[in-house]
Design a protein that fits this description.
homotrimer, alpha+beta, Jelly Rolls, five-stranded antiparallel beta sheet, three-stranded antiparallel beta sheet, about 25% helix, elongated
Chain lengths: ~130, ~130, ~130
Amino acid sequence: MLKELKIQTNQREELIDITHLIREEIASENISNGIVHLHVPHTTAAITINENADPDVKRDILYKLNKEIPQQDNYYHGEGNSDAHIKSSLFGPTLQLIVSDSKLLLGTWQGILFCEFDGPRNRRLYLKIVAD
Amino acid sequence: MLKELKIQTNQREELIDITHLIREEIASENISNGIVHLHVPHTTAAITINENADPDVKRDILYKLNKEIPQQDNYYHGEGNSDAHIKSSLFGPTLQLIVSDSKLLLGTWQGILFCEFDGPRNRRLYLKIVAD
Amino acid sequence: MLKELKIQTNQREELIDITHLIREEIASENISNGIVHLHVPHTTAAITINENADPDVKRDILYKLNKEIPQQDNYYHGEGNSDAHIKSSLFGPTLQLIVSDSKLLLGTWQGILFCEFDGPRNRRLYLKIVAD
């Protein structure tokens, strides 16, 4: 089972909680136990897990990333988005999650965040569920 | 097979070698070949692989992370641990490891490190083994 | 199926596109659908995904990593490569990729990059393919 989800981003940098999208796919596939593989097919975006409650956490993550890795530096790449490429590898474009008793296994405060570092763009996310 | 391990941390920031715990689980499950999925259900902790020999490597990693991402910065999140949230996404809360011929596949100098960034706390680690 | 690939690096820091090596293994194993697990058994190297087109992206990634995490700092570890250990955990030594319809699932601009942070050395990469 391989699916492609569409994700519309609205800012140059943005962390978008997509936990509900992943939960919907697990429910629609009727999986009891297994692994969900997520793959972002872009080199200026990423996927991570972080706090789903206080939106200031997302703001602080983006603030600090941009303070340390600003868009302007002594870069050679002509598209002006080398900072986004670096952030993509730091957070990583893939994620594997456990499904247990038909539920996505996450901590109380954990949400799955799609990371846009060079938007706004129409982005994609591949999702493959492997049942036990 | 899904298990929950308990990990007690003792410092605000700490890298704890848990390789032996993972090896014990593989041995007790009698797995010959497969994949071990690890998931830290916290947003201010992480899991990584690094050197298991010289403890100065762990010290240097924490030293440099704190030098570049100190606890105090212009953060909005009121709990005073935004640095820990950022470090959690940089190192990542999940890890997948290969089991081959009943052994955890690691390099000579590699150990599995539980990363505490906002302790001390009672932490948990989910472990799921999928045999081939 | 577990394989060990050899990778010769030529610089202290280097990002080497190994996508073709992974594609060859998938082809030789005749896998239609499944997951490729990659594991770098070293603590001063890593594996990541990033742009495969403009070589300036690789240069910019290494430039910025070294600007923020130079080889010299107030480190205790006596081998003079603490920077490489830190970079290894930031980019991560493992990667999981999706195989779909006999093809490695990657975005148009994505390549798999072996990351050398303390070369030149003879490096290894473990590859395990799990078919659905």
